[in-house]
Sequence to fold (416 residues):
Amino acid sequence: MLFRDAFKTSTRSLMRGKMRSVLTMLGIVIGIASVIILMSIGQSAQDLILGQVQSIGSNLIIVIPGAPSNGRFSSPASAQGIVITSLQERDVNALEREPSVDMAVPEVRGQGSAVYGNNNVNINFTGSTADFFAVSNLGKVSKGQTFSKADVDSGNHVVVIGPDLANTLFGANVNPIDKIIHIKNVSFRVVGVLEKGGTGAFGVDIGNIVVMPISVAQKQLLGITYYNVIVIQANPSYDINFAKSRITFALRQDHGITDPKKDDFTIQTQADILSILGSITSILTLFLAAIASISLVVGGIGIMNIMLVSVTERTREIGLRKAVGATNNDILQQFLIESVLLTLVGGIVGVTVGAIFVGLTYVVLSTFFSIGWVFAFPISSVILSMVVSGIAGIAFGIYPARQAALKNPIDALRYE
Fold:
């Protein structure tokens, strides 16, 4: 039998039981759509995270207290909540003397409640210098101004807040500038409101951010003398890796470290951070796709089950076809084509459903949520889904097709 004739016969057979064919394909449709959706969402999340990190500038170097971790994905002790006091004011002074460093901006971080009148909002606050706004790339202020070096040196109780926090505390129609808020029972005057909110690099909620002079945050809110992190803007005239090596040398010299294995600080460039984040998100995407692929196996088992039932129901047809000259290969070919057609059509429908869902997700998140969601529809997910669906059709269809091909024509004709 020619392949064209076998294809027509298989198509007519599937069309005779339309509802059964649709229900049989449903498992494949769900499986393919799941793979498409999860891989697309994973890629979108990866693009969003990496885009946010890149947005803060390509010449930034982060210094974190604590010894470097051995594992690539392990974080320094300070990032795990362990208090380490190795970064001090003298380190910033040493770094500012280094020619490859444009700015060295220390930061301390804490949590508390911002109170104005009867409004009370839990916030994460950051204490830093006046250079913080230039280095962190938070954008411009829509009202007022950022605090100055004089505010930091004098320990003035001033803050710059995010637009969402301003709206929550004061309302949409009230000018927040010069209003007094309380954080940990300490009064602060609002001197500036950032122009844009949303989520920034490393998951920072810019809309609810509170930034104050580091001198006030250290002495009056946290009671510490050390820094949680130092963000360095490297001189663009120097190679970033050279700047990193010079910063490492300066800190070792300042800390009296002669053995590199005894470093009490960790230095990361943007390239290091992007590499780690990219690897993590890629692994998570593949993990999610692997979980979704389980539904493909379930759908394939469903196809095998239905095809076995179909073989039993069409036993007399098989016997008749063999009686008039059909070979085992002809019967095998017909049922195998039916199985592959079910999975391929199901794959096409699944890709379509997945693409529609991904598109709707992008529209909803971009329209109603200010998170800067990135639309991503990797072609690799489509190719992978179609290849897997085709393989599933062959793998799960070969057994029923072989069972049909091996039937004895005389026994098949006698089957009731």
User: Anything to note?
Assistant: The first helix runs from residue 3 to 16.
